[in-house]
Amino acid sequence: MNKSELKDFLDEKVIQYNNFDFIESDPIQIPHLFSLKEDIEIAGFLSATIAWGNRKMIIKNSKKLMNIMGNSPYDFIMNHSEDNLESFDNFVHRTFNALDAKTFVKALQNIYINHDGLEAVFAKNQEENSMQKSIHEFKKVFFEIKHLQRTQKHVSDPLNNSAAKRINMYLRWMIRNDYKVDFGIWKTIPTSKLSCPLDVHSGNVARKLGLLKRKQNDGKALAELDLALRKLDKNDPVKYDFALFGLGVFEGF
Questions:
Q1: How many CA atoms lie within 13 A of 89 on its CB side?
Q2: Are the CB atoms for 197 and 170 separated by under 8 Å?
Q3: Distance, CA of 96 to CA of 158 (rounded, Å)
Q4: All residues at 6 or more sequence positions from 14 whose CB lies less than 8 Å from its CB, including other chains
Q5: Interatomic CA distance for residues 21 and 250, integer angstroms
Q6: Quick check: 34 and 66 in contact, CB under 8 A?
Q7: Pick from 172, 162, 115: which is nearest to 138 by CA?
């Protein structure tokens, strides 16, 4: 395929997968349970954080997190007591455990009380075509509270050559507005700065289509893929996540 044919092919796949049906099998269904901005962004952040492994288990455990917080995540974050945190004692998703969950609750409370919320923190340190420095600085703010060293691994740092798949996916959810799947509730960051959530599926498909040459799914590969996708659509490059993911997961491309 030449560049024009590739763009047409991927644009068709975006239309095929970027629709309401996508929600029912994806962790983005968790923030779709809510209508309050803060509930959506907190539910989205926690669900994206544990979004690795079996998708059914991700969704099941994300719902469990919401249940522990009384299905009012923002109210719980802002008003919880130490006794309330004991409700997380039996929670575990792969290597994310109760201690991590409790730290995340406290870190989110600090962000809303002292930093004007998640959107305000991510909106700082934007670069011309990248959110990677913003993610790096976000991690510093997130862990400025007392925490265990082990918990830091659950927030990726792109400046350490991580593809930061889960945070980039979360930013797509919050910033990109397609009136179907992604929410678009953050208005201070343009979609042109978003990066594709690079994982095994999207990486493999991107390589088969000639969008990516690097073999590892790391920060350098993400930069390479970003460049290729921005040539296809400079204003909304991350829409192609639906095409790459759909081709890989649903079609075994």
A1: 5
A2: no
A3: 20
A4: 239, 240, 242, 243
A5: 13
A6: no
A7: 115
pLDDT in tens, 19-34: 999 999 999 999 999 9
pLDDT digits (tens, 9 = 90+) for 32-51: 999 999 999 999 999 999 99
Alpha-carbon span 238 to 182, nearest angstrom: 11
Q: Report which secondary-structure segment, H or E, holds 96.
A: strand 96-97
Let me know: does 238 contact 176? Beta carbons within 8 Å. Answer: yes
| Number of residues that this document lists for the chain | 253
How many CA atoms lie less than 13 Å away from 230 in the CB half-sphere?
A: 14
CB-based contacts of 211, cutoff 8 Å, min separation 6: 225, 228, 229
In this structure, how many other beta carbons lie within 10 angstroms of the beta carbon of residue 217? Answer: 22
How many angstroms separate the CA atoms of 233 and 240, rounded? 9
pLDDT of 79 above 90: yes
Query: Confidence class of residue 1 from pLDDT cuts 50, 70 and 90?
Result: confident
pTM of the model: 0.97
The set of residues, in sequence order, having a beta carbon less than 8 Å from that of 150 and lying 6+ positions away, is 99, 100
What is the DSSP-derived secondary structure letter of residue 95?
Answer: T
How far is residue 22 CA from its own chain's centroid?
16
Could you tell me the two tokens for 106?
């406290």
